[in-house]
Each structure stands twice: as structure tokens, then as C-alpha cells.
Amino acid sequence: MIKPEKPLERCKLEKTPAVTDPRYGCAPEARSMREHIERGVVNIDKPAGPTSHEVVAWVKDILEITKAAHTGTLDPMVTGVLPVLLGATRKLADTFVGDKEYVCVMKLHRAVSEDKLRKVCKEFVGEIYQRPPLESAVKRQIRTRTVHYIALKEVDGKDVLMKVGCEAGTYIRMLCQHLGLALGVGAHMSQLRRTKSFPFTENENNLVTLHDLKDAYVFFEEGDESLLRELIMPLEYAVGHLPCIIIRDSAVDAICHGADLAAPGISRIEEGINIGDSVVLYTVKGEAVGRGEATLNSEDMYRAEKGICVETKKVLMKPGTYPKGWKSKASKANQAEVAER
Fold first, then answer.
1. How far apart are CA 337 and CA 335, in angstroms?
2. Checking DSSP bridges between strand 100-108 and strand 40-46, what pairing results, if any?
3. Beta carbons of 76 and 173 less than 8 angstroms apart
4. Which one-letter DSSP state was computed for residue 89?
5. I need a labelling partner for 106 at 20 to 30 A (CA). Which of 208, 235, 236, 256 fits?
């Protein structure tokens, strides 16, 4: 597993000193195994046969949890990267709607020259039109999708091995059919494997089979949690591609209750944040507290003394993990009344 750079190292703009009370919270790596599972992600290598929902159900049974979700459906016969969000992490499902990569075997109905094949493939790079297939669960409306690249890996007669990088929601089955029409010979998809579901890949993140996950959980039940801890990524690793802001201990519980992040609650800021960017709010210890949308850029946040800097969209930490450092309107009114007396 490739560990992302820690938030404290990424956030170069120090607004207030990054100090924290060791009595509250803990670093992601120091969580109990049960909490590690409930706030984790497992990158499953989906086998051919079961549906994506069946795979998620098996993961829940193996780990003895009640809630989990995948980040993007694979058809039953398709294999490869199927990230499964465990417990509270499933709230981040919309964070992972990014580009995909597939390795595909396309079966031509008649052989063509490799030069012609390469030429036609280039014509399908960019924005294309697609209508979801009949068996699709979504409404069958024509829509546009972007193909970033089609790399031919091997051509053996009528069998074409290729790697496709594309926007989420692109149907590779339809792409193969359209390539066949453009070639004038017809074609269909015979095999498909997903190698990337942003930000997860089959090489850079632990790709776990269901058998390996089951074995690791058996070892955990017998007292050895090391393998299971290695196979399940903390949610902080999964959102490591998003810009980050470190908040003060006194602001954590307010965010846990859904409050927006105001300037006084900021400790450190990553450079390069722009208005509208999706950002992750971390404690000084590196725990993900929530995800939000920046209302100021990095430099303006750094200079701001008051006002909202981030609108909170998702809360990822349980209220009460850190002490309450904010006052309700009622308590403020009571304090004002006492002061007047």
C-alpha cells in the first residue's frame, strides 16, 4: 500500500500553531482494529460471476459489519478493481466518481490491418456519444462521455487487447460495438477487467481477493490483526488525493455537528486550494473530520480573521470525539445576560 503524504506535511501555510491534546482522538494508524474496519476502505479484486452488490454483501459478512458500499458497479462477468467503503466511510461514495481504466479483449468479426485499427481507435479518443445498453439500470438516453486514450497492446487475428482510459459512466461494451461499426467488420467485447477506479488502482493500492480478506479476518479473530490492518486502508488514505486543511482541536466538535469551518478554527492550509474545491478537514493528529467545499482560496483563508472558509458537506467523525469548544446561541445569550448584570 502506498501511503499518502501526511496532512501536517502537506499543509505549508501555518495560521496558528498545530498543537493537539493527546487525550482526545488518535492517529489513523493507532485506531483499534474494529474502528479501523468501520473507518476503512478495502480495494477488492472482483471475481467473474457475482454482481457488485453480492461482493459487497460478502465483504459485510466476512468483516461482520452492517454497512458498506461500492464506488461503481461492475457487470457480473467483469473483474478487477472494486473499492468497497466500510461503515462510516460509505458517506464518501460521491468523492470517488472519477476516471476509470480498463483492459479489454475486443473480438472483431473479421480481421483488419493493425494500421486501420489504430487509425479508427484514434477517432474515438475524445468526446463520444453513447446510449446505455438494454440491460443497463439507468435511463437509456444518448449522452456524451470522454475517452482519454485507447492503447493497443496486442493484436492476434480477430482478438484485440487494448487499454482504455475514460470518464466514469463509459460503456466499454458499447465502445467495442461502435469500433466494429467504424471498422466495417463488426465487433464485440469478449473480456473486460477494470484496472483503475480513481483514485484506486490494481498496482498502487492493495488489491484484495475475497479469500485473502476472509483469511486475514480469521487471523484477526485468533489474535493476529497485522494482515487485516494491512489489507484495509484507513479512510484518510482513500481521500489523500483531495486538498487538505488542518483544524484546531477546539473546532473539531463543531464540524462533527455539521457547522461550517470559520477562519479562527483553522490551523494549517495546503497551498493551491481554489474557491469551489472539495477539501478534507483533518485534525492535527491526521484524522479526517469531514469533507467540504472551499469558499475562499488558500491565500485568502490564510489572511482571513473571521468568516466562513469551508462549507461542510459530509461529517466523517462522531460528535464527542473531541471536547466541545464552541458555544450555542442560547449559552451566548445567557453569558451576555450575566455580563449585563
1. 5
2. unpaired
3. no
4. G
5. 208
| Whole-number Å distance between alpha carbons of 74 and 56 | 12
Q: CB-based contacts of 46: which residues, under 8 Å, 6+ apart?
A: 52, 55, 74, 78, 79, 80, 81, 82, 194
pLDDT per residue over 326-335, tens digit each?
665 444 444 4
Residue located via cell numbers 483553522 = 266
Beta bridge partners of 136: none
Instruction: Read off the pLDDT of residues 107-141 as tens digits, 9 standing for 90 and up.
Output: 999 999 999 999 999 999 999 998 866 665 556 67
Beta-sheet pairing, 187-197 with 79-86:
parallel
Q: At what angle do helices 114-123 and 172-183 cross, to 10 degrees?
A: 120
CA pair distance 198, 331, nearest whole angstrom:
45
Q: Which three cell numbers stand for residue 341?
A: 448584570
**310 vs 94, 273, 283, 297, CA distance in Å?**
18, 11, 15, 10
> pTM for the full model?
0.86
Domains of the chain (ranges; CATH) run 7-26+242-315 (2.30.130.10), 31-96+201-235 (3.30.2350.10), 100-197 (3.30.70.3190)
Catalytic position from the list 45, 75, 253, 260? 75
Active site residue 75: yes
